[in-house]
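Researcher: Batch entry, complex prediction.
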Amino acid sequence: MAERVEGERLGEFEIIARYFAPLATDAAALGLRDDAAVLVISEGYELIATCDTLIEGVHFLGNDPPDSIGYKALSVNLSDLAAKGARGHAYLLSLALPRETPPAWFEGFSSGLRELQEATGITLVGGDTTASPGPPTITITALGLVAHGHAVLRHGAKTGDRLYVSGTIGDAYLGLRLLKDPALASAWDLSEEDSAFLIGRYRRPKPRTELVIPVRNFAQAAIDVSDGLVGDVEKLARASHAGALIEAGSVPFSAPAQKALQREPRLLATLLTAGDDYEIVAAVPEASAAAFEAEAQAKGVPVTMIGRIGGPSGDARVLAPDGKPLELGRKGFAHF
Amino acid sequence: MAERVEGERLGEFEIIARYFAPLATDAAALGLRDDAAVLVISEGYELIATCDTLIEGVHFLGNDPPDSIGYKALSVNLSDLAAKGARGHAYLLSLALPRETPPAWFEGFSSGLRELQEATGITLVGGDTTASPGPPTITITALGLVAHGHAVLRHGAKTGDRLYVSGTIGDAYLGLRLLKDPALASAWDLSEEDSAFLIGRYRRPKPRTELVIPVRNFAQAAIDVSDGLVGDVEKLARASHAGALIEAGSVPFSAPAQKALQREPRLLATLLTAGDDYEIVAAVPEASAAAFEAEAQAKGVPVTMIGRIGGPSGDARVLAPDGKPLELGRKGFAHF
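Model: Structure tokens for the complex:
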């Protein structure tokens, strides 16, 4: 058995007992002492299941603080659930980590998970911990709940629907660029606070869980923006057998992103397609638009109309601020 | 968008559409065209959730046939569910693979999944596909169903319960040794069929899904043997606040394993602790033993009594065939 502590290294069972069992606050988790969870789904609810993997060097950087890695790993799954109008119920965590991962990493990582659990009510119910020769790889499968028949999907948008997006777009991309090349801060005329904001948006994307109810009440279709705004709008349009038109001049950018755009206007196409935003795009019928906006505002989440559903099926077109089609090198991110 | 086909490489969406969408036969999967699944859990059922990660070089070998990798990735999860008395309902698949993974790999891998789906009724409902700089890493989260209150857990075994194990123990370990050092076949006096059998047990462990009903009907506690028979029995005993006694002379070994044991008797302790068996250990009260055996036999699964629950709490002791305590270097496998 490897339960002994060797210097700064902990055994598998010690890691689970010390860092993860405290996150397993629901009886369903059986204290993580079993190898499965037993979940009771309340009558009248559907289960929404989603799964995202984060890999060091692909989805986060090796020197990102461990707490931000834990936060992000759970956040991107809660973002998927929020786009479905579902609240987080439980999650399973698979960790494939180098054998020499120190206790401080687990301490930080689990604190990032805890922060988001406490903010949203989701709890850890199971998982797997494996020593791997590869880069740290984290897979979370999140299970959400929504009243039967009320899940919001990618399909369902109708021609004429307004397209809304929450928050601001492109911050995470700029944050990642800054982490890789800090000199860009002066090129983009950013203050320290500006840079910290953009980096925070890359490392710790806040899931838009406050939009669960407005999305469920008023959106006909929704998607979270993980792979790029234009590409993800196109996925929603294609699933709805419709097209979409985005007005780039209406897309919301944060004040720091606006500074970068002023210094480097050609960043516009990149910000619209870069991804990692974890904002929600919702297709809302004209008749519900005012109610959707009011409910989102009441929840404290800014939402902005950026275009409409319509046009050639399966295609998301983008108009530049001058009204002409915007040239895009690509519409979003795809692995492989 | 990366949907184009580049030579022998496929885009992410093409991979999903060609190889995985055909496995998503349930409406809950939304044809894998959404980023989440919508599952309706029938009234009166509980959901069992479990998660296992397989990494090349850790859980399978780089030259294992891709279909066996797919088969094993799903099998180890179905094994966990079977030990809970739960039948497989749906699963999510996360693939982190090198960018240059060829279509033939996906073809083989998905055929291994399909084989087990068709044998057991579980279906793919979602997942994530990511290009990774690390070794192929596969995480499956499986969701099973069991009638409310009927899940069999690790805890619940009582002093005096019989300990049963399905099938035979140690085959997969011997198969792995043969793959790494083919010369062992002659050292262990194995025929080609013997070697193929043992290698097959490593590469394609058959989940004991036929035991779902006997386990649910008669076991007070159960666990699947993934990390070593003795260690996993000890986990069951510890969770049950009990001890366990295993008689090594009663542990079932296949004919090829018996040949290896005859040539190399000191393998005994290794086979009892090596893991990767994916057999089921069940604690069955004396009064239910005959019924359990009969029902398992009727399902075509051999089960063998290997000992009893009892003795010092949290400890699994092993008696050698001569009745003396068997020396074990370790009781099971642990990461970290």
